[in-house]
Design a protein that fits this description.
flat, mainly alpha
Amino acid sequence: MDDNFYDRISNSVFYDIGDKLGDIILLCLCWLLCCIPVVTIGPSSSALYYAVNKRFKDGSATPTKDFFHSFKQNLRQGVVITIIVLLYTAATIFNILFAIYGFADVKLPSWYLPFAILLLLPLIFTLTYIAPYLSRFTNTVRGTMFHSFTFSTMHIGHTLLMWVYILVSLALMIFFFPSLLFMPFTCTYLCWRLCEKDFSSALSMKAKREDAERIAQEADAKQLEEDELLLAEITEADLAAIEGAEKEDSDPEEEIEEDTDSSDENGNEEE
């Protein structure tokens, strides 16, 4: 009877909802704890995206294990990328403030402020895809940032929508503290739905390009094989016939030359 009671509870809708809520809260807490050193925000966000992807794409039932697996795997590269992003952000903000307020007695011309603001564009069109790309693909630091920028510029609509998700999530986490228990996961899930479409599209295009190259190589190999078979069909008799035809074509010319020489000799004798 106890076993039946346990089975009824474990198979109930409420148990399933509670289990999923527990995973969400646990992943958010893991993300918050791993973000405390600041320089680990990148690998922590990448690990959260990896856990979400494994849960909804592969049906994984071990979210925390997936989280720390990705966190350890991308820790070094993620820290380097985070430091680069933080330094660039700090330099750009300082540049904007310097353009607005100046520094000491130094004042910059008014045209410099729009230029300083434009320096934010590389950050805006890179940051949204760095964590998803880092969790899904293996590349160098430079390659990760370059491809993140490429995905952002290719899918501007998704980039802007993800920034809306990120900014709203940050505002809720700052002004409504309990949202820290579910907003990181929610924001990552919403971004995951957009990023996976873009990644799938890119992988499909790559597969088509590789198939086209493979088909072209197979066609070239087939043509070469046909040419070799055609040459192999030429027998020695055919070669002899070809040589005989060439010899016959060359004989009349020799006779004409001989006749010309003899006529010249006769003419000389008459004179």
